[in-house]
Write a structure and sequence with these properties.
single chain, 113 residues, mainly beta, five-stranded antiparallel β-sheet, 3 helices, 5 strands, 13% helix, globular
């Protein structure tokens, strides 16, 4: 990832780009997703789908609360540093997603909200 040059007094924040990927489906996929489908979170707040891809909004909402923490370096003993699996809330699907760190990006803190 590109690094942002920092001037005197400019604070820089390092954030991981993330991929939320369907790891497995233990039930039936009523939303049409399949193993390997994914959505990327890049540049702090941009969600990107592959061309022609889709991602179920209900599955995504289960992962959303964890993403800000997964974007940051965490202490070694932090449970979220070790855990990466999230379950879709639909009990019939039993769709399991994995949050992957893709690369680290340096961004000026003043450019973030």
């Amino acid at each position: 990832m590109s690094d942002v040059p920092a001037g005197p007094g400019d604070a820089v924040t390092e954030l991981y780009d993330l991929r939320i990927v369907v790891d497995r489906i233990e039930g039936r996929s009523v939303c049409g997703m399949k193993v390997g489908d994914h959505i990327d979170l890049v540049e702090s707040s941009r969600l990107c789908l592959p061309d022609g891809g889709h991602f179920c909004v209900y599955a995504l909402q289960a992962a959303l609360p964890l993403l800000p923490a997964k974007q940051r370096k965490l202490p070694d003993g932090d449970w979220l540093e070790r855990d990466a699996l999230v379950a879709c809330p639909d009990p019939e699907e039993r769709l399991i997603m994995r949050i992957e760190r893709r690369g680290i990006r340096s961004m000026r803190t003043e450019d973030l909200t």
